[in-house]
Amino acid sequence: MECKVKWAGEGMSFTAQTGSGHSVTMDGAPEAGGRNLGPRPMELVLAGTGGCTAFDVVLILKKGRHDVRDCEVSLAAERAESDPKVFTRIHFHFVVTGRGLKREVVARAIELSKDKYCSASIMLGKTAEITHDFAIVEA
Questions:
Q1: Which ranges of 2-127 does DSSP label H, i.e. alpha helix?
Q2: What range does the record give for the signal peptide (predicted)?
Q3: Chain centroid offset of residue 87 CA
Q4: For 78-93, what is each residue's pLDDT tens digit?
């Protein structure tokens, strides 16, 4: 996996070019010299973690031939007050929509992601207390 990050040459804007050919603009807050043109780098870390675990949960449910129709995960994070301002707590709230999904099946998919598959959340778990909860919506 590769990524290149280049300063835009003004303020605190940077463009990341991923190995898969996608670009994303990151920027700092105005009080840090940014112009708010894109998400903050740590917001992208959080978003990537949410994407990683949601991907796992959907894939696990699909492989188990469960009728999953949607998966949304909201993340709420706290960071350390002093540098380095690592994440210290992250709470994941999943809303999984499908037909006939059983609580124990969804819980198991989330646990497998947390304990075995989601590299991002496992990595962040080295500094952050990570908690999960979920709701199931019948489609």
A1: 41-63, 103-112, 119-124
A2: none
A3: 13
A4: 999 999 999 999 999 9
Q: Which residues pair with 134 in a beta bridge?
A: 94
- Give the contacts of 65 (CB within 8 A, at least 6 positions apart): none
Query: HSE-up of 105 (CA within 13 Å, CB side)?
Result: 19
Q: What is the pLDDT of residues 25-76, one digit of tens each?
A: 999 999 999 999 999 999 999 999 999 999 999 999 999 999 999 999 999 9
Which domains, from first to last, does the chain contain? 3-32 (no CATH), 41-138 (3.30.300.20)
- The two tokens of residue 81 are 């007050």
Specify whether the CB–CB gap between 73 and 132 falls below 8 A. Answer: no
d(C-alpha 134, C-alpha 117), whole Å = 18
Q: In angstroms, what CA-CA distances link 4 with 45, 51, 132? A: 15, 20, 32
Strand partners, 137: 97
